[in-house]
Design brief:
The structure holds two protein chains of two kinds. Chain A is α/β, with parallel strands linked by helices. Chain A has six helices and six strands. By secondary structure, chain B is α/β, with parallel strands linked by helices. In chain B, the strands form two sheets. Chain B has a four-stranded parallel sheet, with helices on one face. In chain B, strands 1-2 form a two-stranded parallel sheet. The chains are: A alpha/beta, B alpha/beta.
């Protein structure tokens, strides 16, 4: 199953519509948390919001997450060891108050388990890549290892 | 939570504002603080008192916090009883250092951002990120 989520605050029709068009070709169930958008999906199960406990259950059993570029969602994906395709909200489409999701997506590009689709044309290819990843055995990222080491050093010596 | 493995080699106590999340993550014995922010001064005062009580109960050698206001109060209380204090700004703050990050620059012994472009070369350092 592929889980699509756009966060609880804003709708994100551009992503939902693109995923609805792709859904029949993906060969598996697609469940989408769509927020307050206007587009009504035809090819996937759509829910405005999903309670946290059920959301975690769905994350646990999905093979891939496709989401807006929200840090909270990236952290959840990482906690469950699931690959995630990020599709940033854009200011010029009126999808957020500024372009911070585009900046977030650029910064996270290349991290283990994180794939970036900057627009609809890149979505299908990134989903293919994500589905071919083995969930759960993503190595710990180099930056996470570095942070753990810095904290260990602070605890032991009082210095970073 | 993503740093838990690193911390569990030590005698560690957790404090949070949400008992449900603590229980969900297997931390039923976490200390609970009332949530507050800069717009809730009375709750903030209460939160600061609870933070002081938690710090006096555990007498930690080290206090780590990722914020926000309740974490800052724990860090401040820790500092007052002689603990070494480390602020780790949440990875969610990628545009600028959080309000608490800015405050903690002056309070904590060390201050980390998880975004390289937010390090200032002196008080705020970048040493990796949970992602």
């Amino acid at each position: 199953m592929i889980l699509v989520t756009v966060g609880m605050q804003l709708g994100f029709d551009r992503l939902i519509e693109a995923m609805d068009h792709l859904a029949p070709s993906l060969g598996m169930e697609v469940i989408a948390q769509v927020g307050k958008g206007e587009y009504t999906p035809q090819n996937m199960e759509a829910r405005i919001s999903i309670a946290p406990a059920e959301f975690e259950q769905l994350i646990g059993r999905c093979k891939l997450i496709v989401a807006h570029a929200g840090i909270g969602t990236v952290l959840t994906a990482q906690r469950f060891g699931k690959p995630i395709v990020l599709f940033p909200r854009r200011f010029d489409h009126g999808e957020h108050r500024n372009d911070h999701q585009v900046a977030t997506a650029r910064h996270l590009d290349g991290r283990p388990g994180v794939l970036i689709a900057m627009d609809e044309s890149e979505l299908a290819a990134r989903i293919d890549e994500g589905l071919s990843m083995n969930a759960g055995d993503a190595p710990i990222s180099a930056t996470a290892a570095q942070l753990r080491q810095a904290i260990g050093s602070f605890i032991e010596t009082g210095k970073l | 939570m993503l740093l838990r493995e690193t911390l569990e080699a030590y005698d560690v106590a957790f404090a949070t504002t949400d008992a449900k999340i603590a229980a969900q993550r297997g931390l039923a014995d976490a200390d609970i603080l009332p949530d507050c922010n800069q717009n809730t001064p009375i709750k903030a005062l209460l939160c600061a008192l609870v933070a002081a009580k938690i710090i006096l109960k555990h007498r930690p050698h080290i206090v780590l916090s990722t914020g926000a206001a309740p974490g800052y109060f724990c860090l401040l209380a820790g500092r007052l009883v002689g603990a070494k204090t480390l602020w780790i700004d949440s990875v969610a703050n990628g545009e600028e250092l959080s309000m608490c990050g800015k405050l903690s620059k002056k309070t904590a012994h060390a201050c980390l951002t998880q975004w390289e472009h937010l390090a200032d070369g002196s008080a705020v350092k970048y040493k990796g990120a949970v992602l």
